[in-house]
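Entry 14. Structure prediction run on the chain below.
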Amino acid sequence: MRPVDIEALTVPGILALRGDLLLTAVSRPDLKSNSYRGALRRVDPGGGGESAWTHGTKDSAPAISPDGRWVAFLRTGEGSGRAAKPQVHVMPAAGGDAKGITDLPLGAGAPVWGPDSRRIAFVARVPEPGRYGTENADGETPEPGEEAPRHITNLFYRVDDVGFLNDRPQRLFVVDAVAALGEESPAELTPLTDDRADVDHPSWTADGEQVLFTGPRDWAAEDTVRTDVYAVPSGGGEPRLLVRTLGTADRPVVAPDGSILFYGNEFPGLEDVARNTGLWQAPWPSGDEPSSPRRLTDVETVDCDNAAGAPVVVGDEVLVVVSTRGAAELRAVPLDAELAELKSLRHLMGERAAVKSFAVDGERIVAVVGTPESSGDVVLLADGEPHVLTDYSKALRDTGILPLEELNATAPDGYPVHGWVVRPAGDGPHPVVLMVHGGPFAAYEWKVFDEAQVLAAAGYAVVLGNPRGSAGYGESHGRSIVHGLGTVDADDLLALLDEALELPNLDGDRVGVMGGSYGGFMTSWLAAHHGGRFRAAWSERAVNAWDSFVGSSDIGWFFAGGYAGDDVEEQRKRSPLTYAGKIDIPFMVAHSEQDWRCPLEQAQRMYVALQQNGVAAEFLLFPGEGHELTRSGLPRHRVQRFDAVLEWWGRHL
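Output returned:
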């Protein structure tokens, strides 16, 4: 795989299934337009292939009405202004033209059909007048740099890759889609929630009278990362607190028995981190007081992936995606479960693979599944067996996908370490790059990873590991580095590297280390404490100094205390910048100008310290990008970054 082959990364997204109609939205990077292109595709559940369903350039988030008559989706147009924002469109399921039914300044979120097959719920950010291209009270539309100053009184006021929050709160809407189809232009919509709090994840009650959603604890009266489950009458009224959680809530749905299911984390304090996401259930409250939830899944062994979709009830079970040992598996949780362990949950699909989304219609189950040979294809579960319905990764395979070889190592304290190596073709000996993921409560997975494939195709063996601190190996595994960054996690990574270097065609004298975010932190840390193991380092979007991260990162006000503690001396002890004087290998600092997760000053401070210490340090700075450059940045920037990575390792390895 070459850098320009990112155009072959065609990835299916959200699935919609009703009867014989199975839809997915596909997306791929497009270098010519320097954007991501995609449309809805119809997949034949019978195995007859797939075909175009819509012909927009940026269509996504398909949803089929319960009666099967309509398809709603998001369409983003070209150019600028409202047309260039995702707007809800509706078209007949039998085929025909799509019509836009929203015209919101900042666009709309994914549509969710009501049980009447007429109304659609969605969330959307609503800007203050005079901001983000809207008119102010004087009828003027100020340029961004001419907008009035933001008056900020809270800590949770901005998010990376989203922007400022207080002046464009995310609010809940309901629109009569069928009525809107008969109108010449989209009607003015009134939000069902006020501007004091961001809300998310709408879903409907079976009678269509209420819309559930998640919102901040006590309606954001104080700074908090805690969220609860609320409901509001679908025709308008006061929101009501349904479930007060023990931490957070995501993707609430009403089960057939009237209870409420949701994903959630449980934590005792504000600065708690690295907690497994569980499946929870709560009764619909009988009075004015919110109900208390119970956890259906085990705290230690079950970590639900809420990004894969809301929980779905099938019979007496709930389908969820669970992360485990680099896999994302579709599992079934009994509705009457009490802290069910992973080993007791029925396995449906995803062994040594990654289920990224799923949908259910009756007893039929479809999913988007990535594998070591695929970035994602649509799979139907029939008679207990998976049947692959698409071949979106053919172009990717044609670039030459290299195998993902499993590695198991033992740390100095006897702890088991799990990972992989991707080796180039040929006899070698091949130079080696140890690659460290971000998070740290995240994981490399059993699926195609473009970063490893590009390097391996260029002749480098890539070692990928999930050391202590990673997700999917038990909550205690993830929490083992809390207030201990750079300890056992570093030991695990070096143990895995040593295991890989036992392979006969890897060159232990030509080894580099690289990573982003937490991986950038670890790259800096290893360069300082174990620099003799490496020829050079590439540290990207890194945390280098916890003291300034506290006040500059969008999540610094709670995340830094959670991982490094609140003691200033301890933060200094856990900061790679403290040990910059020990780094003496060539060192690349790569960063994005608009990174609010690990702000630019984190890179600047490390680069200046290294330069002043006489290190062969370089600084690669991407304009306009945020923290997600390598995953969703402008396609040309992604290719330019790959070119720079290959040039760097070509010089030093």
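The mean pLDDT is 97.
Filed with the rest of this week's runs.
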